[in-house]
């Protein structure tokens, strides 16, 4: 991995079912990794209407997209 790089894609860990996996280079802040995971994977709660909205990846899945092909990568500016 490149220093300051974050990658996320579908994968398997220890024979568990497929899940979104995050990989990161040296000196990548924990908060930045959490931002990526939260943005892609966690439901949003609409406090005004008092209901949960599906996560970004769940919304893609509901629209018929193959999450096994999802790959995200970003690098810090030097």
What percentage of the residues does DSSP assign to strands (E)? 25-35%
> In total, how many domains does the architecture comprise?
1
Shape: globular
How far do the termini sit from each other?
Answer: 15 Å
Instruction: Compute the number of strand runs.
Output: 5
- The strand line-up of the biggest sheet is 2-1-5
Fraction of residues in H or I helices: 10-25%
Please, what is the average pLDDT?
90
Order of helices and strands: EEHEEHE
Q: Whole-number radius of gyration?
A: 14 Å
> How many helical elements?
2
Query: What structural class do the secondary elements suggest?
Result: alpha+beta
Which segments are poorly predicted (pLDDT under 50) over 5 or more consecutive residues? none
Largest sheet: 3 strands, antiparallel
Topology:
Blueprint: E1 5-11, E2 19-24, H1 30-41, E3 44-46, E4 51-53, H2 56-62, E5 71-75
Antiparallel strand pairs: 1-2, 1-5, 3-4
What is the compact description of this entry?
By secondary structure, the protein is α+β, with helices and mostly antiparallel strands. It has helices at residues 30-41, 56-62; strands at residues 5-11, 19-24, 44-46, 51-53, 71-75.
Output the keywords.
two-stranded antiparallel sheet; three-stranded antiparallel β-sheet; 31% strand; alpha+beta; 78 residues; globular
What does it look like?
This protein has one domain. The protein is 24% helix and 31% strand. The strands form 2 sheets. It has a 3-stranded antiparallel β-sheet, with helices on one face. It is globular, with a radius of gyration of 14 Å.
């Amino acid at each position: 991995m490149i220093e300051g790089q974050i990658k996320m894609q579908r994968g398997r860990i220890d024979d568990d079912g497929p899940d979104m996996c995050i990989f990161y280079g040296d000196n990548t802040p924990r908060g930045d990794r959490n931002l990526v995971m939260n943005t892609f994977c966690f439901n949003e709660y609409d406090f005004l209407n008092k209901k949960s909205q599906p996560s970004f990846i769940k919304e893609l899945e509901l629209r018929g997209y193959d999450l096994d092909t999802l790959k995200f990568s970003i690098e810090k500016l030097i």
